[in-house]
Specification:
The structure holds two protein chains of two kinds. Helices cover 52% and strands 17% of the residues of chain A. Chain A has a two-stranded antiparallel sheet with strand order 1-2. In chain A, a hairpin with a 5-residue loop joins strand 1 and strand 2. Chain B has 16 helices and 14 strands. In chain B, a hairpin with a 4-residue loop joins strand 4 and strand 5. The chains are: A alpha+beta, B alpha/beta. Chains A and B meet through helix 1, helix 2, strand 1 and strand 2 of A and helix 6, strand 7, helix 7 and helix 11 of B.
Chain lengths: 77, 514
Protein backbone atom coordinates (compact mmCIF):
# COMPACT_ATOMS: atom_id res chain seq x y z
CA UNK A 1 0.00 0.00 0.00
CA UNK A 2 1.34 3.45 -0.87
CA UNK A 3 1.67 6.34 1.53
CA UNK A 4 -1.67 8.13 1.66
CA UNK A 5 -0.01 11.47 2.38
CA UNK A 6 1.78 11.37 -0.96
CA UNK A 7 -1.12 10.21 -3.07
CA UNK A 8 -2.64 12.31 -5.79
CA UNK A 9 -6.27 13.24 -5.39
CA UNK A 10 -7.25 10.92 -8.20
CA UNK A 11 -5.43 7.91 -6.76
CA UNK A 12 -6.89 8.64 -3.32
CA UNK A 13 -10.50 8.76 -4.53
CA UNK A 14 -10.03 5.62 -6.61
CA UNK A 15 -8.73 3.67 -3.64
CA UNK A 16 -11.34 5.13 -1.29
CA UNK A 17 -14.03 3.86 -3.64
CA UNK A 18 -12.45 0.40 -3.66
CA UNK A 19 -12.18 0.33 0.14
CA UNK A 20 -15.82 1.36 0.59
CA UNK A 21 -16.89 -1.30 -1.88
CA UNK A 22 -14.92 -4.01 -0.08
CA UNK A 23 -16.30 -3.06 3.32
CA UNK A 24 -19.85 -2.90 2.01
CA UNK A 25 -19.63 -6.35 0.49
CA UNK A 26 -18.65 -7.51 3.97
CA UNK A 27 -16.47 -10.35 2.69
CA UNK A 28 -13.37 -9.28 4.60
CA UNK A 29 -12.20 -10.65 7.95
CA UNK A 30 -12.99 -8.62 11.06
CA UNK A 31 -9.39 -7.55 11.72
CA UNK A 32 -8.99 -6.65 8.09
CA UNK A 33 -12.22 -4.69 8.02
CA UNK A 34 -11.02 -2.48 10.84
CA UNK A 35 -7.70 -1.91 9.08
CA UNK A 36 -9.63 -1.16 5.90
CA UNK A 37 -11.81 1.33 7.72
CA UNK A 38 -8.73 3.13 9.04
CA UNK A 39 -7.21 3.18 5.57
CA UNK A 40 -10.48 4.51 4.17
CA UNK A 41 -10.63 7.24 6.80
CA UNK A 42 -7.06 8.31 5.93
CA UNK A 43 -7.94 8.35 2.23
CA UNK A 44 -11.00 10.45 2.88
CA UNK A 45 -8.92 12.92 4.89
CA UNK A 46 -6.43 13.07 2.01
CA UNK A 47 -9.21 13.77 -0.48
CA UNK A 48 -10.63 16.52 1.70
CA UNK A 49 -7.21 18.07 2.16
CA UNK A 50 -6.66 18.12 -1.59
CA UNK A 51 -10.10 19.63 -2.09
CA UNK A 52 -9.39 22.33 0.48
CA UNK A 53 -6.23 23.25 -1.43
CA UNK A 54 -8.50 25.03 -3.88
CA UNK A 55 -6.62 28.26 -4.14
CA UNK A 56 -6.85 30.65 -7.00
CA UNK A 57 -3.59 32.26 -7.93
CA UNK A 58 -3.27 33.83 -11.31
CA UNK A 59 -0.04 35.24 -12.64
CA UNK A 60 1.14 36.45 -16.00
CA UNK A 61 4.55 35.47 -17.20
CA UNK A 62 6.81 38.36 -18.10
CA UNK A 63 9.20 37.70 -20.91
CA UNK A 64 12.75 38.87 -21.01
CA UNK A 65 15.20 38.89 -23.87
CA UNK A 66 14.62 36.37 -26.59
CA UNK A 67 11.18 35.48 -25.24
CA UNK A 68 12.60 33.71 -22.17
CA UNK A 69 10.37 33.97 -19.08
CA UNK A 70 11.82 36.49 -16.67
CA UNK A 71 9.24 36.34 -13.89
CA UNK A 72 5.58 36.85 -13.16
CA UNK A 73 3.36 39.82 -12.81
CA UNK A 74 -0.23 40.10 -11.62
CA UNK A 75 -2.70 39.78 -14.44
CA UNK A 76 -4.22 43.20 -15.05
CA UNK A 77 -7.59 41.73 -15.63
CA UNK B 1 -10.69 58.33 -93.05
CA UNK B 2 -11.93 61.81 -93.31
CA UNK B 3 -9.86 62.92 -90.34
CA UNK B 4 -6.80 61.33 -91.83
CA UNK B 5 -7.38 63.21 -95.10
CA UNK B 6 -7.93 66.42 -93.25
CA UNK B 7 -4.66 66.01 -91.50
CA UNK B 8 -2.94 65.10 -94.68
CA UNK B 9 -4.48 68.05 -96.37
CA UNK B 10 -2.98 70.29 -93.74
CA UNK B 11 0.43 68.86 -94.40
CA UNK B 12 -0.27 68.92 -98.09
CA UNK B 13 -0.56 72.66 -98.16
CA UNK B 14 3.20 72.86 -98.39
CA UNK B 15 3.56 69.98 -100.80
CA UNK B 16 1.73 69.75 -104.11
CA UNK B 17 2.14 66.01 -104.62
CA UNK B 18 0.49 64.14 -101.89
CA UNK B 19 1.85 60.82 -102.90
CA UNK B 20 5.42 62.16 -103.00
CA UNK B 21 5.01 63.31 -99.51
CA UNK B 22 4.15 59.85 -98.12
CA UNK B 23 6.77 58.00 -100.09
CA UNK B 24 9.86 60.16 -99.58
CA UNK B 25 9.72 61.36 -95.96
CA UNK B 26 7.33 59.17 -94.09
CA UNK B 27 8.94 59.51 -90.55
CA UNK B 28 10.71 62.69 -90.71
CA UNK B 29 8.48 64.27 -88.12
CA UNK B 30 8.36 61.24 -85.69
CA UNK B 31 10.67 61.67 -82.77
CA UNK B 32 13.45 59.18 -82.70
CA UNK B 33 14.15 57.20 -79.53
CA UNK B 34 17.13 55.22 -78.48
CA UNK B 35 16.39 51.72 -77.06
CA UNK B 36 17.14 52.90 -73.57
CA UNK B 37 15.00 56.00 -74.11
CA UNK B 38 12.01 54.02 -75.28
CA UNK B 39 12.54 51.39 -72.54
CA UNK B 40 12.69 54.18 -69.99
CA UNK B 41 9.57 55.76 -71.49
CA UNK B 42 7.74 52.44 -71.32
CA UNK B 43 8.90 51.89 -67.72
CA UNK B 44 7.64 55.35 -66.80
CA UNK B 45 4.31 54.76 -68.52
CA UNK B 46 3.80 51.38 -66.87
CA UNK B 47 4.93 52.41 -63.43
CA UNK B 48 2.82 55.52 -63.68
CA UNK B 49 -0.23 53.71 -64.91
CA UNK B 50 0.05 50.69 -62.56
CA UNK B 51 1.62 52.09 -59.42
CA UNK B 52 -0.77 50.21 -57.14
CA UNK B 53 -2.60 47.17 -58.39
CA UNK B 54 -4.16 44.03 -56.99
CA UNK B 55 -3.80 41.02 -59.19
CA UNK B 56 -5.63 37.80 -58.67
CA UNK B 57 -4.21 34.59 -60.03
CA UNK B 58 -2.76 31.24 -59.35
CA UNK B 59 0.79 30.96 -58.13
CA UNK B 60 2.91 29.26 -60.75
CA UNK B 61 6.57 28.43 -60.53
CA UNK B 62 8.19 29.76 -57.32
CA UNK B 63 11.94 30.09 -56.83
CA UNK B 64 13.76 31.22 -53.73
CA UNK B 65 17.42 31.88 -54.50
CA UNK B 66 19.96 32.49 -51.77
CA UNK B 67 19.59 36.21 -52.20
CA UNK B 68 16.36 35.99 -50.18
CA UNK B 69 14.15 37.41 -52.88
CA UNK B 70 11.26 35.31 -54.09
CA UNK B 71 10.60 34.98 -57.79
CA UNK B 72 7.28 33.64 -58.85
CA UNK B 73 4.75 33.57 -61.65
CA UNK B 74 1.14 34.56 -61.38
CA UNK B 75 -1.01 33.02 -64.00
CA UNK B 76 -4.48 32.36 -65.24
CA UNK B 77 -5.67 30.31 -68.18
CA UNK B 78 -4.40 32.69 -70.82
CA UNK B 79 -1.57 34.82 -69.47
CA UNK B 80 1.42 34.75 -67.20
CA UNK B 81 2.72 37.64 -65.13
CA UNK B 82 6.20 37.49 -63.66
CA UNK B 83 6.49 38.68 -60.07
CA UNK B 84 9.14 39.30 -57.49
CA UNK B 85 8.97 39.74 -53.72
CA UNK B 86 12.03 41.54 -52.42
CA UNK B 87 13.85 40.04 -49.48
CA UNK B 88 12.71 42.72 -47.01
CA UNK B 89 9.07 42.04 -47.87
CA UNK B 90 9.39 38.30 -48.09
CA UNK B 91 10.30 37.97 -44.41
CA UNK B 92 7.20 39.79 -43.21
CA UNK B 93 4.65 37.89 -45.27
CA UNK B 94 1.76 36.32 -43.42
CA UNK B 95 1.42 33.68 -46.11
CA UNK B 96 4.28 32.32 -48.08
CA UNK B 97 3.32 31.72 -51.67
CA UNK B 98 3.06 28.12 -52.63
CA UNK B 99 2.60 26.78 -56.13
CA UNK B 100 -1.02 26.22 -56.96
CA UNK B 101 -2.29 28.71 -54.39
CA UNK B 102 -5.00 31.07 -55.54
CA UNK B 103 -3.80 34.47 -54.37
CA UNK B 104 -4.37 38.15 -54.55
CA UNK B 105 -1.05 39.95 -54.91
CA UNK B 106 -0.76 43.61 -54.07
CA UNK B 107 2.01 45.80 -55.52
CA UNK B 108 3.03 47.70 -58.63
CA UNK B 109 4.06 46.88 -62.15
CA UNK B 110 7.45 47.70 -63.46
CA UNK B 111 9.62 46.69 -66.35
CA UNK B 112 12.94 44.98 -66.57
CA UNK B 113 14.54 46.81 -69.49
CA UNK B 114 17.54 44.50 -69.70
CA UNK B 115 15.30 41.69 -70.96
CA UNK B 116 12.41 43.61 -72.45
CA UNK B 117 10.18 42.26 -69.78
CA UNK B 118 7.68 43.62 -67.39
CA UNK B 119 6.91 42.23 -64.00
CA UNK B 120 5.08 42.87 -60.79
CA UNK B 121 6.82 43.95 -57.58
CA UNK B 122 4.68 42.24 -54.96
CA UNK B 123 4.35 44.00 -51.62
CA UNK B 124 1.90 41.60 -50.09
CA UNK B 125 0.29 38.39 -51.06
CA UNK B 126 -2.76 36.76 -49.54
CA UNK B 127 -4.74 33.67 -50.34
CA UNK B 128 -7.67 34.56 -52.49
CA UNK B 129 -10.66 34.04 -50.24
CA UNK B 130 -11.65 31.30 -47.78
CA UNK B 131 -11.66 28.58 -50.38
CA UNK B 132 -7.99 29.08 -51.11
CA UNK B 133 -7.09 29.14 -47.40
CA UNK B 134 -9.07 25.98 -46.78
CA UNK B 135 -7.36 24.27 -49.68
CA UNK B 136 -4.00 25.16 -48.17
CA UNK B 137 -5.11 23.98 -44.75
CA UNK B 138 -6.20 20.66 -46.20
CA UNK B 139 -2.81 20.25 -47.77
CA UNK B 140 -1.02 20.90 -44.45
CA UNK B 141 -3.40 18.62 -42.63
CA UNK B 142 -2.68 15.81 -45.04
CA UNK B 143 1.06 16.33 -44.61
CA UNK B 144 0.89 16.30 -40.78
CA UNK B 145 -1.49 13.34 -40.76
CA UNK B 146 0.97 11.46 -42.94
CA UNK B 147 3.61 12.16 -40.26
CA UNK B 148 1.30 10.47 -37.75
CA UNK B 149 0.83 13.56 -35.58
CA UNK B 150 -2.94 13.10 -35.34
CA UNK B 151 -2.77 9.45 -34.24
CA UNK B 152 -5.11 8.71 -31.32
CA UNK B 153 -2.35 6.80 -29.48
CA UNK B 154 -0.34 10.02 -29.33
CA UNK B 155 -3.03 11.69 -27.24
CA UNK B 156 -2.08 12.06 -23.60
CA UNK B 157 -4.64 11.68 -20.84
CA UNK B 158 -5.51 14.91 -19.07
CA UNK B 159 -4.72 14.98 -15.33
CA UNK B 160 -7.86 14.55 -13.24
CA UNK B 161 -7.01 17.49 -11.03
CA UNK B 162 -4.13 19.61 -12.33
CA UNK B 163 -2.19 21.62 -9.77
CA UNK B 164 -1.06 24.36 -12.12
CA UNK B 165 -2.67 25.28 -15.42
CA UNK B 166 -0.68 27.09 -18.06
CA UNK B 167 -2.75 29.24 -20.42
CA UNK B 168 -1.39 30.44 -23.73
CA UNK B 169 -3.52 33.37 -24.86
CA UNK B 170 -3.83 37.11 -24.94
CA UNK B 171 -3.57 38.49 -21.38
CA UNK B 172 -6.28 40.99 -22.12
CA UNK B 173 -9.65 40.24 -23.50
CA UNK B 174 -12.61 38.03 -22.84
CA UNK B 175 -10.92 34.68 -23.36
CA UNK B 176 -8.68 34.64 -20.28
CA UNK B 177 -11.51 36.13 -18.19
CA UNK B 178 -13.90 33.39 -19.33
CA UNK B 179 -11.36 30.71 -18.48
CA UNK B 180 -10.51 32.13 -15.04
CA UNK B 181 -14.17 32.65 -14.26
CA UNK B 182 -15.10 29.07 -15.06
CA UNK B 183 -12.09 27.71 -13.19
CA UNK B 184 -13.10 29.73 -10.13
CA UNK B 185 -16.62 28.30 -10.32
CA UNK B 186 -15.46 24.72 -10.57
CA UNK B 187 -12.16 24.41 -8.79
CA UNK B 188 -9.87 27.40 -8.21
CA UNK B 189 -6.34 26.55 -9.31
CA UNK B 190 -2.99 28.18 -9.83
CA UNK B 191 -2.89 29.66 -13.33
CA UNK B 192 0.10 30.88 -15.28
CA UNK B 193 -0.74 32.98 -18.31
CA UNK B 194 1.81 33.17 -21.11
CA UNK B 195 0.90 36.29 -23.09
CA UNK B 196 0.89 35.94 -26.87
CA UNK B 197 -0.51 37.72 -29.88
CA UNK B 198 -3.55 35.76 -30.99
CA UNK B 199 -3.65 37.12 -34.51
CA UNK B 200 -1.38 38.62 -37.10
CA UNK B 201 2.04 37.62 -38.15
CA UNK B 202 3.48 37.35 -34.63
CA UNK B 203 0.75 34.97 -33.54
CA UNK B 204 2.14 31.63 -34.75
CA UNK B 205 5.76 32.08 -33.61
CA UNK B 206 4.68 33.41 -30.21
CA UNK B 207 2.18 30.63 -29.58
CA UNK B 208 4.74 28.01 -30.59
CA UNK B 209 7.36 29.62 -28.33
CA UNK B 210 4.89 29.73 -25.42
CA UNK B 211 4.02 26.04 -25.69
CA UNK B 212 7.69 25.17 -25.89
CA UNK B 213 8.52 27.61 -23.04
CA UNK B 214 6.00 26.03 -20.66
CA UNK B 215 7.54 22.64 -21.42
CA UNK B 216 10.98 24.00 -20.60
CA UNK B 217 9.99 25.01 -17.04
CA UNK B 218 11.09 22.69 -14.25
CA UNK B 219 8.40 21.25 -11.98
CA UNK B 220 8.42 23.03 -8.62
CA UNK B 221 10.86 25.69 -9.84
CA UNK B 222 10.60 29.42 -9.28
CA UNK B 223 8.25 29.35 -12.23
CA UNK B 224 6.59 25.99 -11.66
CA UNK B 225 5.87 23.85 -14.69
CA UNK B 226 2.14 23.50 -15.33
CA UNK B 227 0.66 20.00 -15.54
CA UNK B 228 -1.94 21.08 -18.07
CA UNK B 229 -1.86 23.59 -20.92
CA UNK B 230 -4.73 25.47 -22.52
CA UNK B 231 -4.12 27.23 -25.84
CA UNK B 232 -7.07 29.54 -26.33
CA UNK B 233 -8.41 32.23 -28.59
CA UNK B 234 -11.84 33.73 -29.11
CA UNK B 235 -13.83 33.54 -32.31
CA UNK B 236 -12.77 35.39 -35.45
CA UNK B 237 -12.52 35.17 -39.18
CA UNK B 238 -10.57 32.41 -40.82
CA UNK B 239 -7.78 34.88 -41.40
CA UNK B 240 -7.82 35.93 -37.74
CA UNK B 241 -7.45 32.36 -36.59
CA UNK B 242 -4.88 31.57 -39.22
CA UNK B 243 -1.92 31.63 -36.84
CA UNK B 244 -3.27 28.44 -35.21
CA UNK B 245 -3.17 26.76 -38.61
CA UNK B 246 0.54 27.32 -38.97
CA UNK B 247 2.79 24.31 -38.97
CA UNK B 248 5.11 25.61 -36.24
CA UNK B 249 2.15 25.85 -33.84
CA UNK B 250 0.94 22.36 -34.69
CA UNK B 251 4.45 20.94 -34.32
CA UNK B 252 4.97 22.68 -30.95
CA UNK B 253 1.65 21.32 -29.68
CA UNK B 254 2.54 17.82 -30.89
CA UNK B 255 5.93 18.02 -29.16
CA UNK B 256 4.46 19.18 -25.84
CA UNK B 257 5.02 16.72 -22.98
CA UNK B 258 2.39 18.55 -20.97
CA UNK B 259 -1.15 17.51 -21.91
CA UNK B 260 -2.68 20.26 -24.00
CA UNK B 261 -6.25 21.43 -24.56
CA UNK B 262 -6.87 23.55 -27.65
CA UNK B 263 -9.72 26.03 -27.62
CA UNK B 264 -9.51 28.26 -30.66
CA UNK B 265 -12.47 30.17 -32.04
CA UNK B 266 -16.05 29.01 -31.85
CA UNK B 267 -17.37 25.51 -31.93
CA UNK B 268 -17.54 25.49 -35.73
CA UNK B 269 -13.97 26.63 -36.20
CA UNK B 270 -11.40 23.92 -36.50
CA UNK B 271 -7.76 24.85 -36.71
CA UNK B 272 -4.70 22.72 -37.24
CA UNK B 273 -3.76 22.77 -33.53
CA UNK B 274 -7.08 21.06 -32.74
CA UNK B 275 -5.91 17.96 -34.58
CA UNK B 276 -2.66 17.61 -32.65
CA UNK B 277 -3.88 18.72 -29.21
CA UNK B 278 -4.69 16.03 -26.64
CA UNK B 279 -8.21 17.39 -26.26
CA UNK B 280 -10.14 19.89 -28.31
CA UNK B 281 -12.52 22.21 -26.51
CA UNK B 282 -15.19 23.98 -28.56
CA UNK B 283 -14.73 27.22 -26.59
CA UNK B 284 -12.33 28.63 -23.98
CA UNK B 285 -15.01 28.18 -21.30
CA UNK B 286 -15.38 24.55 -22.28
CA UNK B 287 -11.61 24.19 -21.96
CA UNK B 288 -11.84 25.26 -18.31
CA UNK B 289 -14.57 22.67 -17.79
CA UNK B 290 -12.41 19.94 -19.30
CA UNK B 291 -9.45 21.07 -17.18
CA UNK B 292 -10.86 20.69 -13.68
CA UNK B 293 -13.62 18.73 -11.93
CA UNK B 294 -16.26 20.47 -9.81
CA UNK B 295 -14.90 20.88 -6.30
CA UNK B 296 -18.25 20.95 -4.50
CA UNK B 297 -19.37 17.76 -6.19
CA UNK B 298 -16.15 16.06 -5.14
CA UNK B 299 -16.55 17.30 -1.56
CA UNK B 300 -20.06 15.89 -1.50
CA UNK B 301 -18.83 12.64 -3.00
CA UNK B 302 -16.04 12.38 -0.43
CA UNK B 303 -18.51 12.98 2.41
CA UNK B 304 -20.74 10.32 0.96
CA UNK B 305 -17.86 7.85 0.77
CA UNK B 306 -16.99 8.63 4.40
CA UNK B 307 -20.57 7.94 5.47
CA UNK B 308 -20.66 4.69 3.52
CA UNK B 309 -17.35 3.72 5.09
CA UNK B 310 -18.64 4.18 8.63
CA UNK B 311 -21.96 2.54 7.86
CA UNK B 312 -20.26 -0.45 6.29
CA UNK B 313 -18.06 -0.94 9.35
CA UNK B 314 -20.97 -0.55 11.77
CA UNK B 315 -23.09 -2.93 9.73
CA UNK B 316 -20.24 -5.41 9.53
CA UNK B 317 -19.68 -5.33 13.28
CA UNK B 318 -23.43 -5.53 13.98
CA UNK B 319 -23.87 -8.54 11.72
CA UNK B 320 -20.95 -10.31 13.33
CA UNK B 321 -22.33 -9.58 16.80
CA UNK B 322 -25.72 -10.91 15.78
CA UNK B 323 -24.11 -14.05 14.41
CA UNK B 324 -22.21 -14.61 17.64
CA UNK B 325 -25.45 -14.27 19.62
CA UNK B 326 -27.33 -16.58 17.25
CA UNK B 327 -24.61 -19.21 17.39
CA UNK B 328 -24.52 -18.87 21.19
CA UNK B 329 -28.18 -19.70 21.35
CA UNK B 330 -27.76 -22.60 18.98
CA UNK B 331 -24.98 -24.05 21.18
CA UNK B 332 -26.29 -27.18 23.08
CA UNK B 333 -26.27 -27.31 26.94
CA UNK B 334 -23.28 -28.99 28.58
CA UNK B 335 -25.56 -31.46 30.47
CA UNK B 336 -27.15 -32.51 27.19
CA UNK B 337 -23.71 -33.15 25.74
CA UNK B 338 -22.71 -35.61 28.54
CA UNK B 339 -26.07 -37.30 29.03
CA UNK B 340 -25.60 -39.86 26.29
CA UNK B 341 -22.07 -40.95 27.29
CA UNK B 342 -23.11 -41.09 30.94
CA UNK B 343 -25.98 -43.43 30.12
CA UNK B 344 -23.65 -45.70 28.20
CA UNK B 345 -21.23 -45.72 31.09
CA UNK B 346 -23.99 -46.75 33.49
CA UNK B 347 -25.15 -49.51 31.21
CA UNK B 348 -21.65 -50.89 30.73
CA UNK B 349 -20.95 -50.63 34.47
CA UNK B 350 -23.95 -52.77 35.20
CA UNK B 351 -22.92 -55.42 32.73
CA UNK B 352 -19.33 -55.61 33.99
CA UNK B 353 -19.74 -57.96 37.06
CA UNK B 354 -22.03 -60.30 35.14
CA UNK B 355 -19.54 -60.49 32.32
CA UNK B 356 -16.72 -61.19 34.75
CA UNK B 357 -18.63 -63.98 36.42
CA UNK B 358 -19.50 -65.46 33.02
CA UNK B 359 -15.91 -65.35 31.88
CA UNK B 360 -14.68 -67.02 35.11
CA UNK B 361 -17.22 -69.78 34.76
CA UNK B 362 -16.23 -70.38 31.18
CA UNK B 363 -12.55 -70.66 32.08
CA UNK B 364 -13.35 -72.96 34.94
CA UNK B 365 -15.30 -75.23 32.64
CA UNK B 366 -12.39 -75.29 30.18
CA UNK B 367 -10.04 -76.17 33.03
CA UNK B 368 -12.18 -78.97 34.31
CA UNK B 369 -12.57 -80.43 30.83
CA UNK B 370 -8.80 -80.40 30.38
CA UNK B 371 -8.30 -82.11 33.76
CA UNK B 372 -10.52 -84.97 32.71
CA UNK B 373 -7.97 -86.14 30.16
CA UNK B 374 -4.95 -87.30 32.14
CA UNK B 375 -3.92 -89.61 29.30
CA UNK B 376 -2.47 -86.69 27.34
CA UNK B 377 -0.31 -85.67 30.24
CA UNK B 378 0.91 -89.20 30.96
CA UNK B 379 1.79 -89.72 27.34
CA UNK B 380 3.76 -86.54 27.17
CA UNK B 381 5.49 -87.38 30.40
CA UNK B 382 6.43 -90.87 29.21
CA UNK B 383 7.79 -89.44 25.99
CA UNK B 384 9.99 -86.93 27.80
CA UNK B 385 11.30 -89.66 30.05
CA UNK B 386 12.10 -91.92 27.09
CA UNK B 387 13.96 -89.10 25.25
CA UNK B 388 15.83 -88.29 28.41
CA UNK B 389 16.86 -91.87 28.95
CA UNK B 390 17.96 -92.17 25.34
CA UNK B 391 20.06 -89.05 25.61
CA UNK B 392 21.59 -90.12 28.90
CA UNK B 393 22.48 -93.54 27.40
CA UNK B 394 24.10 -91.91 24.38
CA UNK B 395 25.99 -89.39 26.40
CA UNK B 396 28.62 -91.69 27.92
CA UNK B 397 29.53 -93.75 24.82
CA UNK B 398 29.56 -90.65 22.67
CA UNK B 399 32.03 -88.99 24.94
CA UNK B 400 34.21 -92.05 25.05
CA UNK B 401 34.10 -92.41 21.31
CA UNK B 402 35.07 -88.84 20.69
CA UNK B 403 37.91 -89.12 23.20
CA UNK B 404 39.14 -92.21 21.55
CA UNK B 405 38.85 -90.71 18.08
CA UNK B 406 40.64 -87.63 19.24
CA UNK B 407 43.43 -89.61 20.79
CA UNK B 408 43.82 -91.74 17.69
CA UNK B 409 43.96 -88.64 15.52
CA UNK B 410 46.43 -87.15 17.92
CA UNK B 411 48.64 -90.17 17.82
CA UNK B 412 48.50 -90.21 14.07
CA UNK B 413 49.35 -86.55 13.77
CA UNK B 414 52.05 -86.73 16.43
CA UNK B 415 53.99 -89.28 14.53
CA UNK B 416 56.86 -87.63 12.77
CA UNK B 417 56.66 -84.52 14.93
CA UNK B 418 59.36 -83.40 17.26
CA UNK B 419 59.04 -85.09 20.58
CA UNK B 420 59.49 -82.21 22.99
CA UNK B 421 57.26 -79.72 21.10
CA UNK B 422 54.76 -82.37 20.46
CA UNK B 423 54.86 -83.44 24.00
CA UNK B 424 54.22 -79.89 25.16
CA UNK B 425 51.46 -79.52 22.67
CA UNK B 426 49.96 -82.80 23.55
CA UNK B 427 50.09 -81.86 27.17
CA UNK B 428 48.43 -78.51 26.43
CA UNK B 429 45.83 -80.00 24.19
CA UNK B 430 45.21 -82.77 26.69
CA UNK B 431 44.72 -80.22 29.37
CA UNK B 432 42.37 -78.24 27.17
CA UNK B 433 40.65 -81.41 26.20
CA UNK B 434 40.29 -82.37 29.83
CA UNK B 435 38.91 -78.96 30.64
CA UNK B 436 36.44 -79.09 27.78
CA UNK B 437 35.52 -82.62 28.68
CA UNK B 438 34.91 -81.47 32.19
CA UNK B 439 32.82 -78.53 31.03
CA UNK B 440 30.94 -80.78 28.68
CA UNK B 441 30.12 -83.32 31.33
CA UNK B 442 29.28 -80.54 33.78
CA UNK B 443 26.87 -79.06 31.30
CA UNK B 444 25.42 -82.47 30.51
CA UNK B 445 24.80 -83.30 34.13
CA UNK B 446 23.45 -79.77 34.73
CA UNK B 447 21.05 -80.11 31.81
CA UNK B 448 20.06 -83.50 33.03
CA UNK B 449 19.39 -82.14 36.48
CA UNK B 450 17.31 -79.33 34.99
CA UNK B 451 15.33 -81.76 32.93
CA UNK B 452 14.78 -83.92 35.95
CA UNK B 453 13.57 -81.05 38.01
CA UNK B 454 11.26 -79.93 35.16
CA UNK B 455 10.05 -83.49 34.96
CA UNK B 456 9.34 -83.52 38.63
CA UNK B 457 7.52 -80.24 38.36
CA UNK B 458 5.43 -81.56 35.52
CA UNK B 459 4.74 -84.68 37.53
CA UNK B 460 3.60 -82.55 40.41
CA UNK B 461 1.38 -80.65 38.02
CA UNK B 462 0.09 -83.92 36.74
CA UNK B 463 -0.63 -84.97 40.24
CA UNK B 464 -2.56 -81.79 40.88
CA UNK B 465 -4.42 -81.87 37.65
CA UNK B 466 -4.69 -85.67 37.58
CA UNK B 467 -7.83 -87.51 38.00
CA UNK B 468 -6.93 -88.35 41.57
CA UNK B 469 -7.79 -84.82 42.56
CA UNK B 470 -10.97 -85.05 40.52
CA UNK B 471 -11.94 -88.12 42.49
CA UNK B 472 -12.09 -86.01 45.61
CA UNK B 473 -14.90 -83.98 43.97
CA UNK B 474 -17.09 -87.12 43.72
CA UNK B 475 -16.04 -88.60 40.43
CA UNK B 476 -15.01 -92.24 40.19
CA UNK B 477 -12.91 -94.27 37.78
CA UNK B 478 -14.30 -97.61 36.65
CA UNK B 479 -11.87 -100.30 35.60
CA UNK B 480 -12.65 -103.61 34.06
CA UNK B 481 -9.94 -106.28 33.92
CA UNK B 482 -7.34 -103.71 34.89
CA UNK B 483 -8.18 -101.20 32.13
CA UNK B 484 -10.32 -98.02 32.42
CA UNK B 485 -13.83 -98.61 31.29
CA UNK B 486 -15.51 -95.63 29.66
CA UNK B 487 -18.52 -97.18 28.00
CA UNK B 488 -21.37 -99.34 29.09
CA UNK B 489 -20.53 -101.91 26.42
CA UNK B 490 -17.01 -102.29 27.76
CA UNK B 491 -18.39 -102.61 31.27
CA UNK B 492 -20.73 -105.41 30.24
CA UNK B 493 -17.93 -107.29 28.50
CA UNK B 494 -15.57 -107.01 31.48
CA UNK B 495 -15.26 -109.99 33.76
CA UNK B 496 -14.89 -107.91 36.84
CA UNK B 497 -15.28 -104.17 37.57
CA UNK B 498 -13.43 -102.05 40.03
CA UNK B 499 -14.49 -98.53 41.06
CA UNK B 500 -11.84 -96.23 42.31
CA UNK B 501 -12.83 -93.48 44.72
CA UNK B 502 -10.64 -90.88 46.19
CA UNK B 503 -10.03 -92.91 49.29
CA UNK B 504 -9.82 -96.43 47.84
CA UNK B 505 -11.04 -98.99 45.38
CA UNK B 506 -14.15 -101.08 45.54
CA UNK B 507 -14.45 -104.33 43.61
CA UNK B 508 -17.80 -104.96 42.11
CA UNK B 509 -18.45 -108.53 41.12
CA UNK B 510 -20.29 -109.39 37.93
CA UNK B 511 -22.29 -111.69 39.95
CA UNK B 512 -23.58 -108.82 41.98
CA UNK B 513 -25.48 -107.54 38.95
CA UNK B 514 -29.13 -108.28 38.73
Amino acid sequence: MSDVEKMSFEDAIKELETVVGQLERGDVALDESIALYERGAALKARCEAKLKEAEEKVAKITLGEGGVPAGTAPLDD
Amino acid sequence: MEVFITAAAGVGQKRTDLSDLFEDEPSDNTPEFSVSEISGAVKKAIEGGFSHVRVRGEVGRVSRPASGHIYMDLKDDRAVLAGVIWKGRAQGLAHRPEEGMEVVATGKLTTFPGQSKYQMIIEDIAPAGAGALMAMLEKRKAALAAEGLFAPERKKELPYLPEIIGVVTSPSGAVIRDILHRLRDRFPRKVLVWPVAVQGQKCAPEVAAAIDGFNQLTPGGALPRPDLLIVARGGGSLEDLWGFNEEIVALAAAASDIPLISAVGHETDTTLIDFVSDMRAPTPTAAAELAVPVRLELLAWTDQQGARLSRALTTGLGQRGQRVRDLGRALPQVDALVEGPRQRLDYLGERLPTALRGAAAKKRLQMSEAALRPGILSRRLAEYRRRLDGLADRLGPALKRRTRDGRTALEQTSRGLRAQVLHDRVTRQSERFETMLRRLSDRASRQQAERLSRLEALDRLRETLGYVETLKRGYAVVRGDGAVVTTQVAAEQAKALEIEFSDGRLAVGKDARP
